[in-house]
Design goal:
One of its GO terms (molecular function) is acetate CoA-transferase activity. With 443 residues, this protein is an alpha/beta fold. The chain folds into two domains: 3-172, Glutaconate Coenzyme A-transferase (3-Layer(aba) Sandwich); 187-432, Glutaconate Coenzyme A-transferase (3-Layer(aba) Sandwich). It contains 15 helices and 27 strands. The chain has a seven-stranded parallel β-sheet, with helices on both faces. Strand 23 and strand 24 (362-363) form a beta hairpin. The longest helix is centred in the C-terminal third of the chain and has 18 residues, at 415-432. The radius of gyration is 23 Å and the shape is globular. The model is unreliable at 357-364 (pLDDT under 50).
């Protein structure tokens, strides 16, 4: 189908005022989304369109498209950050696990679903390929489903499939899948990964956040045995872990022998591994983030990131320097699930400092990411904080009163910031109604 024909077909199916959703990150159907924004004026027919914004890995959405498109969503990561900076993204401050329920209830409206699918199998079923997440709820509510069939999308096992009867328009993909390849981990990330790997036991089930750091943790686990997978995001590092023999899912207490994920965020290597892999299933957010499922999983190690953590364990994962950077996401769900899991590890990992700025050839000292007061919202309450990990060590906050939390957090801050944090701690604890207790620094 040529560009003119595709634009005409989209105009016939999409109405002015429609709210349009698609898979986030690597699951974006580029042929459809690029056609939508390129022909948005003709498709909107003098009205406006709404687009839900998730994690971004492409440059499809741009601020100048706000002449026709209203952007709403839960994430402003990657290229979508420019929408937030321009004040064009209407943030939905919801736990990621709540999205399917809000969609099915009609609170978050859905009219049109654009999906990227695999070629059909012998039974005529198109796999959702790289993603389940909140898409099954979107498909349940959409008036119109438009599918892009991509031969490079793996056929993956899951709970939801599409047939020709479900789809109003099917087009052939004109672009390959989005690749998400990670760079080599830094020395800081490697140090953090070693601290985390030293806490994870054989037989643990892994949940990983997004970024270089989770991939570094996976690389540090190749010597472990009988690890399992139950995660929202799955990256290339999980393939290497499986090939090392460490990932067998054998000791999982839920879905024994099978790895569970929500979205594949990696390269062609990950897609090849996932294709018709009987040991991998993609499931909806209502399952991957289900607190009961997580609590029943033996030794769940939940490893997520943050922008900053304060001295009492409050976590900001959304705003840096006054700019919306991320989303509430699923960290709170996984931290609570790991806390309830027998032998579980609720972990937040982050470098002790932000990257330093470079001016006239000189690099300045990076700001501390262990802070006395958060510069953004509390994405995760201190009551849900577990283990906070930086390159300087691990602060296990579970069961600690505020005064001892403060000391442990100062111990894992960058040495050049500890004196200032120590001074600020007295005022912080007075505000909390607690006394500062002198606790020897960690060796």
């Amino acid at each position: 189908m040529d560009a003119h024909s595709l634009a005409a077909a989209l105009r016939a199916l999409i109405r002015p005022g429609d709210r349009i959703w698609w898979g986030q990150a690597t699951a974006e159907p580029l042929t459809l989304t690029r056609a939508l924004v390129a022909h948005r004026h003709a498709i909107a027919q003098g009205g406006r369109l709404g687009v839900f914004v998730g994690i971004g890995q492409s440059d499809t959405l741009q601020p100048d498209q706000s002449d026709v498109i209203d952007f709403f969503g839960y994430a402003a990561s990657g290229p979508h950050r420019q929408l937030a900076r321009a004040g064009l993204l209407d943030i939905v401050p919801s736990h990621y696990s709540h999205l399917p329920g809000l969609i099915r209830a009609g609170t978050l409206p859905v009219d049109v679903a654009l999906v990227q699918v695999s070629p059909a199998d012998a039974e005529g079923r198109h796999s959702l390929g790289l993603v389940h997440e909140y898409l099954p709820a979107v498909l349940d509510r959409a008036r119109v489903i438009i599918a892009e069939v991509n031969p490079d999308i793996p056929w993956t096992h899951g709970s939801h499939y599409l047939t020709a009867a479900d789809i109003a328009l099917t087009v052939d993909a004109q672009f390959g899948p989005i690749d998400l390849e990670r760079g080599a981990p830094s020395e800081v990330e490697l140090a953090i990964a070693r601290h985390i790997a030293g806490r994870i036991e054989d037989g643990a089930t892994l949940q990983m956040g997004i970024g270089n750091l989770p991939e570094a943790v996976l690389a540090a686990l190749h010597g472990h045995r009988d690890l399992g997978l139950h995660s929202g995001a799955v990256g290339d590092g999980m393939v290497a872990l499986a090939e090392s023999g460490a990932l067998t899912h054998a000791r999982k207490t839920v879905d024994t022998g099978i790895g569970i994920g929500g979205i594949l965020m990696g390269s062609a290597r990950l897609r090849r591994w996932a294709h018709r892999n009987p040991l991998l299933q993609l499931r909806e957010t209502t399952y991957t983030h289900d607190p009961e499922v997580l609590a029943r999983q033996h030794k769940l190690a939940a490893i997520n990131g943050a922008i900053e953590v304060d001295l009492t364990g409050q976590i900001n994962a959304e705003v840096a320097g006054g700019v919306y950077m991320g989303a509430v996401g699923g960290a709170a769900d996984f931290l609570r699930g790991a806390a309830r899991s027998h032998g579980g590890l609720p972990i937040i990992a982050l470098p002790a400092t932000a990257k330093g700025a470079t001016t006239m050839g000189a690099t300045t000292k990076g700001a501390s990411r262990i802070v006395a007061q958060l510069s953004g919202p509390v994405s995760t309450a201190r009551s849900d904080a577990g283990l906070i990990v930086t390159e300087y060590g691990v602060a296990d906050l579970r069961g600690l009163p505020l005064s001892r939390r403060v000391r442990r957090m100062i111990d894992i801050a960058a040495p050049e910031h500890r004196e200032a944090l120590d001074r600020q701690a007295h005022a912080l604890l007075r505000q909390c109604g607690a006394a500062f207790v002198t606790v020897p620094a960690a060796a």
